[in-house]
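Budget justification aside, the reviewers requested a transparent look at the raw inputs and outputs of the sequence design task funded under Objective 1. We therefore reproduce one unedited record. The lines immediately below are the C-alpha cells for a 273-residue chain.
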C-alpha cells in the first residue's frame, strides 16, 4: 500500500495509559510541551478485564482542564455519554478557540446505543474530536458499523478519527510474533479509504510489550496511517496499568526518529525506482 501521508505531519497522541495523579500528569504535560504532541492522553475511565484501578474518573477532569490552560490538547476515553458531558463541561471553557478535546470510544465499548449517545454529546462542540477504536474481534463490517453509528449520533465526519488497535488473536488470525493484538493494516486501509477518515495506529495496544513497539510502529512505513497513539509514562515500570507496554518520553523520541528515518528511506527508494 502506498505511503499517503508524506505531506502531512502524522497526528501524535501520546501520554500515560491511565491518569494516576497530578504529579504524573504535570510531568507528562511538561514533556509534551517540548515535543510536537497533538493530544496528551489523560485517560480517566479505564475498562478493566478484572476489577482493579479503573481510573481517576471525574476527579481527574481538573487535570485535563489544566492541560487546556497550558495550551495542550487533552484526550480521554469515555464509556458513556454522561462522562463525555462532564469532561466537556470541565475542559471546553478552558480551551482556546483553536484548542481541541479528544474523546474516544474504546475497543470494548460495543453497545451501539452508548456509542450513539456519546456521539450525540460530542457533536455539540466542533472542538471535540471523537476517536473510534476498532472492536476486539476481527470484523470489517462491525468496524464500519461503529463509524455509521457515530455519524447517526450526529458527529460530522471532520470531527471523527479512527484508530486501529489490532484484533484479539484467534484460530483464524494467528499471532506468530506474540503480540497483544494482531494488526490487520490492509483492513485498516480499506476502512480508511471507504470512510475517508484519518486512521491512527495504536502501537501500544497492538504490541503489548516495550520490545515489540518499534516493529509495530514500522507499519507506518508500508501503510498510509495518519498518525500514532503511544502510551508514554514517566516511570513505566511502576505504571498502575499496562506497565509492560509503556515507554519513557526519551524512548518515544528515539522510536519516532527511527520510524521517520525508515519512512524517508522508503520514500527515497520509491523515487529512485
Ligand atoms: C486505551 O487506549 O486506553 C485502551 C483501553 O485501549 P483499547 O480500547 O484499544 O483496548
Ligand atoms: Mn493501555
Amino acid at each position: 500500500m502506498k505511503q499517503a501521508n508524506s505531506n502531512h505531519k502524522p497526528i501524535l497522541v501520546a501520554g500515560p495509559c491511565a491518569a494516576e495523579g497530578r504529579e504524573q500528569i504535570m510531568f507528562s504535560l511538561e514533556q509534551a510541551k517540548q515535543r510536537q504532541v497533538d493530544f496528551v492522553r489523560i485517560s480517566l475511565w479505564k475498562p478493566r478485564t478484572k476489577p482493579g484501578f479503573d481510573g481517576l474518573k471525574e476527579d481527574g477532569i481538573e487535570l485535563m482542564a489544566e492541560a487546556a490552560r497550558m495550551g495542550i490538547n487533552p484526550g480521554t476515553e469515555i464509556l458513556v455519554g454522561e462522562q463525555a458531558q462532564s469532561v466537556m463541561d470541565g475542559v471546553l471553557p478552558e480551551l482556546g478557540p483553536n484548542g481541541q478535546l479528544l474523546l474516544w470510544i474504546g475497543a470494548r465499548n460495543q453497545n451501539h446505543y452508548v456509542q450513539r449517545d456519546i456521539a450525540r454529546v460530542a457533536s455539540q462542540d466542533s472542538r471535540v474530536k471523537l476517536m473510534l477504536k476498532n472492536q476486539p474481534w476481527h470484523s470489517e463490517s462491525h468496524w464500519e458499523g461503529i463509524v455509521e453509528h457515530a455519524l447517526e449520533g450526529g458527529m460530522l465526519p471532520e470531527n471523527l478519527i479512527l484508530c486501529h488497535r489490532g484484533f484479539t488473536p484467534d484460530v483464524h488470525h494467528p499471532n506468530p510474533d506474540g503480540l497483544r493484538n494482531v494488526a490487520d493494516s490492509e483492513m485498516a486501509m480499506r476502512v480508511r479509504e471507504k470512510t475517508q477518515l484519518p486512521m491512527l495506529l495504536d502501537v501500544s495496544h497492538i504490541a503489548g510489550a516495550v520490545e515489540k513497539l518499534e516493529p509495530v510502529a514500522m507499519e507506518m512505513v508500508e501503510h498510509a496511517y495518519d498518525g500514532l497513539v503511544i502510551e508514554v509514562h514517566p516511570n513505566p515500570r511502576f505504571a498502575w496499568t499496562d506497565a509492560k507496554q509503556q515507554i519513557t518520553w526519551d524512548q518515544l523520541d528515539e522510536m519516532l526518529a527511527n520510524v521517520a528515518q525508515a519512512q524517508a528511506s522508503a520514500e527515497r527508494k520509491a523515487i529512485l525506482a
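Residues 17, 231, 241-242 surround manganese (II) ion (ligand 2) (CB under 6 Å). Residues 214 and 259 are 8 Å apart (CA to CA). Computational costs for records of this kind are itemized in the attached budget.
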